Amino acid sequence: MLCAMSALAGFISRLPKAELHVHHVGSASPRIVSELAERHPGTVPSDPERLTEFFAFRDFAHFIEVYLAVVDLIRTPEDIRLLTYEIAREMSQVQQVRYAELTCTPHTSVLAGIPIEAYTEAVEDARVASERDFGIVYRWIYDIPGELGLAGADATLGYVLNHAPDALIALGLGGPEIGVPRAQFKPHFDAARAAGFHSIPHAGETTGPETVWEALRELGAQRIGHGTSSAQDPELLKHLAATGIPLEVCPSSNVATRAVATLDEHPLRAFRDAGVVVTINSDDPPMFGTSLNREYEIAAELLDLDETGLADLARTAVRVSYAPEDVKARVLAEIDSVAG
């Protein structure tokens, strides 16, 4: 058994992948944070060993502490550029990610004093350089920070409509779900969709399936971030399966946030058995002590997948992504080459 899992882990480490649910700041590894901490000495240690200890996931409160500490280190457009470029290096070289839809929250940076024009220039410069240097293709999802209410939504929609970078594909919605009804953001998603952008909100991670229904009905969701509680509603599962609307599943994150108690209780198998399209993603990988490779290993365990099944999982992520068709064709061919 151990030998089989080791062989699967080796296959996963070689398998080309697409990452559809991963956060910009939440992807800052200790190595990247060390560089930022050297630029801005203060509360976050720059020593790699101390940083590794600082990052060692303990609980969700600790995740918030680490996340906010990293946010505080991103103070200039040069920091944005460094973060974005170095994430691409690690995704491509360690995780074999060929295409990523990175969820960004530009309003946080604007509130920190970075003009949206400078933010846009920084992420786009990093995107172009990353594709040239690492072969990874980036696309952006601009995330409404739900905890900031309509003011944050208004500002984010303004960035989407008036300052959209070339690679922006969608409007998202993150932050807490409890006390933040999805329906209040309907005008923002209506306007974004009318302008040609996709709707990819988080929903049903820490609340019940009614939040997923709300995202579908009010926000026109085309994919659902997490959607963990969908398993509680058979009618919702039938609807998701019939419409082909994918769930972006992040198993380790769901345990860390207490959306599920343990990996053994994760509804991933229930989603698969109901015919729901699922993709496997890492969310905030270094902060949750995981990686996309590890999430594929977990999926293999939960779904009893062999190499063929894992390759199919990777193909699904590519197919339901909003990558350009030529990029989809290239990555699918790479998966075929590795899968044999």
Describe this structure in words.
The protein is of the alpha/beta class. Helices cover 54% and strands 14% of the residues. The chain contains 16 helices and eight strands. The protein has an eight-stranded parallel β-sheet, with helices on both faces. The model has no long low-confidence stretch (mean pLDDT 95).
Essential attributes:
340 residues; alpha/beta; eight-stranded parallel sheet; globular
Structure, briefly:
Helix content is 54%, strand content 14%. With 340 residues, the protein is an alpha/beta fold.
The chain-level mean pLDDT equals 95
Largest sheet: 8 strands, parallel
State the low-pLDDT regions, or none: none
Biggest sheet: strand arrangement: 1-2-3-4-5-6-7-8
Which percent bin holds the helix content? 40-55%
Shape: globular
What structural class results from the helix and strand content?
Answer: alpha/beta
Rounded to an integer, what's the Rg over CA atoms? Answer: 19 Å
- Distance, first to last CA: 23 Å
Number of strands: 8
Secondary-structure element sequence?
HEHHHHEHHEHEHEHEHEHHEHHH
Count of individual helical segments: 16
β-strand percent reads 5-15%
